[in-house]
């Protein structure tokens, strides 16, 4: 059985209008019908560009943002129906590692206080002596010397701060760790250290990770299964090796071809699929396939009317799920890509009238979820 | 002669009561017309300060700039502020990382664009507007007439960066300095912007300095690369040469520690460079990278490391290291020139 089971999860942020009587005029569909199954002891990678809903999904799973619909089961227990009080007890089972350790660590708390806080909040056994012992254990596990207990976050480098963030997430022996862009704020040479640390910890404590990131190379390196999100939905999901060897969804193909490879010979020869335009507004997503406005493989029928479901292709690629009506035909080369003009993309999202308001609201909705300390509230 | 010649550039920040910080230390490089030169380094390596010093954009208080910067035969370092203002925008233009903070949020895109044209190119109002429309079209913004009347917040990140590029190329500069122009953007948008920059350099024949931490961006865009560490250039080479034969242990370690999207059989653990950029040695005492270096030997700490020429006079590949990757002998002042 999977450790985390998510069914038809939706997170819609209401858009309000009117000065005196606020009425709901629409919704930003940040996450719109997502299913996830995450096996214990594995790493699940969630990739997508900004605004695709990957962070919102991560937070909704932890109930840091309340989902508007759907179910989330952790170890068989439906956590969306739990009361706030019971939820707090469940929270110790999953923790979060945030992107910017400087913003998620209180600058006025010493390392000792930062690491003791979750222990105290969740009544970790052993009393203060036990807590002090645990703090030392945690520091050792993430590769920081014991002597740092009295230091403050500003005294550390970015990589060390991220180690502190990881130590804090580990404090309560969680089963699941959701890491939202754990290395993207770090320098290249430090990134590798933190990625390796995450892998070592996984082996040592049989942790389960959901890694949310925009860097496809990083995700490939650490994940067993990878899901690609576009505009609130998963468009493709497969074992990491399969996905990168043979991406089936046109968006995944474009995304992968856009990642620069640190090798001039590869860069010179490989073919690029250059997408036109930007992500459409999640408040008014295109009908049918969300990607059809920018898709170079778009067909005249079905693409703009019928939303494709995430389905497995048992014949051509077992275990590989894709949400595209024409995945088989594209794979077989029966459909060839055509050029998409930026003007065409530009016309599709609702840019007139409430469109601009929606865009701002979406921004605000995103801003409502700052990187607060995990399980602190 | 090169379009831009930077010789022995150094920048020192002084603050009362504190040790002066030498952010850039003896940096020299050339940019030819039509050439893209990459400056690669991690945070704190001095790559952005180098570009600001070339532009003359560093504040005069508390900053000492040494060395010379020559653009098309004119020395920029000795120019007064007024002449320098004419050079900036007209001959040299800069694209920054975050277009939201470098565009004025309360002025329309159109006014920000026409301002450059009237100020530097001496166009009239009507001409400037027509030209601005052309420029937006050139950088790939659909419906430019509508966009000219909009404010920066109404544009997406990629669109804003396109506007920044339009402003930068408005006066057909001879040199374009791009400081992490795609770091704040998503990969698919990054690909669009890099494609645009590539096309602009090819079409206009201007020189470009690309400042980035991303070796992937360099691989796809630049002709020459300079790798900076702790304020100095530690390795310079043609892009293909550098990637084929990374010779400074830092460059080599960096290339090995990047997870690659096209790696079909990834190793379980990534190669790492131990420590952080804070673990450093002042250059006059030895190699700044020594505390993190796998190849470190005692000679690394006996004074500033010599620059070894591993290439040929035609295809230079200088490396600031006493024991470059692939070399067995310890290099010193005596045997470094071969």
TrEMBL record, chain B:
InterPro entries (alphabetical): AAA+_ATPase, ABC_Ni/Peptide_Import, ABC_transporter-like_ATP-bd, ABC_transporter-like_CS, Oligopep_ABC_C, P-loop_NTPase
Places the protein is found: Cell membrane
Keywords assigned by UniProt, alphabetized: ATP-binding, Cell membrane, Membrane, Nucleotide-binding, Transport
Domain ABC transporter: 6-255
Organism encoding this protein: Jiangella rhizosphaerae
Record membrane topology: Peripheral membrane protein
Stated name of the protein: ABC transporter ATP-binding protein
GO annotation, biological process: peptide transport
Family: Belongs to the ABC transporter superfamily.
Molecular function GO labels: ATP binding; ATP hydrolysis activity
């Amino acid at each position: 059985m999977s450790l985390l089971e998510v069914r038809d999860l939706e997170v819609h942020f209401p858009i309000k209008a009117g000065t005196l009587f606020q009425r709901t005029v629409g919704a930003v569909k940040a996450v719109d019908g997502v299913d996830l199954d995450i096996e214990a002891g594995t790493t699940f990678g969630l990739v997508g560009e900004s605004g695709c809903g990957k962070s919102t999904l991560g937070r909704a799973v932890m109930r840091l943002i309340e989902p508007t619909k759907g179910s989330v089961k952790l170890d068989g227990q439906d956590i969306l129906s739990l009361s706030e009080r019971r939820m707090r007890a469940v929270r110790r089972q999953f923790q979060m590692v945030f992107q910017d350790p400087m913003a998620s660590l209180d600058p006025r708390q010493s390392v000792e206080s930062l690491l003791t806080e979750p222990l105290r909040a969740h009544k970790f056994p052993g009393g203060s002596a036990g807590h002090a012992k645990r703090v030392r254990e945690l520091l050792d596990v993430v590769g920081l010397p014991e002597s740092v207990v009295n230091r403050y976050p500003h005294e550390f480098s970015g990589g060390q701060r991220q180690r502190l963030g990881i130590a804090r997430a580990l404090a309560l022996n969680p089963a699941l760790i959701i890491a939202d862009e754990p290395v993207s704020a770090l320098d290249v040479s430090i990134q590798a250290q933190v990625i390796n640390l995450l892998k070592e910890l996984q082996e040592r404590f049989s942790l389960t990770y959901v890694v949310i990131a925009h860097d496809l190379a990083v995700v490939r390196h650490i994940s067993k299964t990878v899901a690609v999100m576009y505009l609130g939905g998963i468009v493709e999901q497969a074992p990491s090796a399969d996905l990168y060897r043979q991406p089936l969804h046109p968006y995944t193909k474009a995304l992968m071809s856009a990642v620069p490879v640190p090798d001039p010979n590869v860069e010179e020869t490989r073919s690029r699929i250059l997408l036109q335009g930007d992500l459409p507004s999640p408040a008014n997503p295109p009908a049918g396939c969300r990607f059809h406005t920018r898709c170079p493989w778009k067909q005249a029928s079905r693409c703009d009317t019928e939303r494709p479901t995430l389905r497995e292709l048992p014949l051509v690629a077992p275990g590989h799920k894709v949400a595209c009506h024409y995945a088989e035909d594209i794979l077989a080369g029966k459909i060839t890509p055509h050029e998409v003009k930026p003007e065409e993309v530009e016309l599709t999202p609702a840019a007139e009238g409430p469109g601009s308001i929606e865009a701002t609201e979406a921004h605000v909705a995103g801003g409502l979820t700052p990187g607060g300390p995990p399980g602190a509230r | 002669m090169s379009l831009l010649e930077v010789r022995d550039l150094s920048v020192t920040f002084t603050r009362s009561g504190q040790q002066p910080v030498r952010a850039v230390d003896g940096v020299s490089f050339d940019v030819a017309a039509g050439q893209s030169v990459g400056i690669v380094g991690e945070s704190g390596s001095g790559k952005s300060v180098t570009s600001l010093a070339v532009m003359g954009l560093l504040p005069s208080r508390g900053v000492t700039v040494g060395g010379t910067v020559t653009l098309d035969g004119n020395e920029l370092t000795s120019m007064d502020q007024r002449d320098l203002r004419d050079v900036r925008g007209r001959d040299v233009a800069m694209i920054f990382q975050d277009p939201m903070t470098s565009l004025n949020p309360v002025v329309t895109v159109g006014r920000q664009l026409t301002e450059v044209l009237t100020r530097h190119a001496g166009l009239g109002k009507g001409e400037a507007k027509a030209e601005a429309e052309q420029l937006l079209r050139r950088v790939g913004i659909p419906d430019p007439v509508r966009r000219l009347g909009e404010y920066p917040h109404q544009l997406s990140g990629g669109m804003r960066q396109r506007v920044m590029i339009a402003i930068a190329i408005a006066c057909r500069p001879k040199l374009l300095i791009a400081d992490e122009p795609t770091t704040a953007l998503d990969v698919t948008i990054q690909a669009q912007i890099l494609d645009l920059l590539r096309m602009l350099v090819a079409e206009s024949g201007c020189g470009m300095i690309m400042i980035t931490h991303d070796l992937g961006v360099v691989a796809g865009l630049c002709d020459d690369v300079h790798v900076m560490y702790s304020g100095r250039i530690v390795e310079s080479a043609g892009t293909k040469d550098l990637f084929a034969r990374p010779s400074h242990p830092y460059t080599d370690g960096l290339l090995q520690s990047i997870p690659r999207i096209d790696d079909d059989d990834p190793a379980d653990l990534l190669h790492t460079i131990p420590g952080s950029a804070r673990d450093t040695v002042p250059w006059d005492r030895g190699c700044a990278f020594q505390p993190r270096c796998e190849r470190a030997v005692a000679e690394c700490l006996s004074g500033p490391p010599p620059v070894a020429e591993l290439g040929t006079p035609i295809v230079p590949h200088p490396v600031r290291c006493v024991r470059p990757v692939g070399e067995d002998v310890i290099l010193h002042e005596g045997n470094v020139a071969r």
